[in-house]
From TrEMBL:
Pfam families named in the record: DUF3715 (PF12509)
GO CC annotations, alphabetized: nucleoplasm
GO biological process terms held by the UniProt record: negative regulation of gene expression, epigenetic
The TASOR pseudo-PARP domain, residue ranges: 40-78
InterPro entries: TASOR, TASOR_DUF3715
Naturally occurring in which organism (per UniProt): Molothrus ater (Brown-headed cowbird)
Protein name as annotated: TASOR protein
């Protein structure tokens, strides 16, 4: 999934991953579902509501743990590698 999600095909083999972790936070999932319901009620199409994924690359595990606990909000992270 990580390799096939690369926007640039030339980048697909450019990274070597040692570990990927899927984080599911019920509070954040609840917020996402409420957001999607509100957008659907406002008339957004199923294509616009389709879930997409992004991957963050962290230098330190502590940075990833912080994001997993507090979420990722605009201007709340020093991470710049998406």
């Amino acid at each position: 999934v990580l390799r096939s999600s690369s926007l640039h095909s030339g980048s697909q083999q450019g990274f070597q991953y040692s570990r990927a972790i899927l984080v599911e936070n019920e509070l954040f999932l609840s917020e996402l579902r409420a957001f999607a319901r509100a957008k659907a009620a406002a008339g957004y199409s199923q294509e616009e509501l389709r879930e997409t994924f992004a991957f963050l690359l962290f230098d330190k595990e502590e940075e990833a743990q912080r994001v997993c606990q507090s979420g990722l909000r605009v201007n709340s992270s020093s991470s710049g590698a998406l």
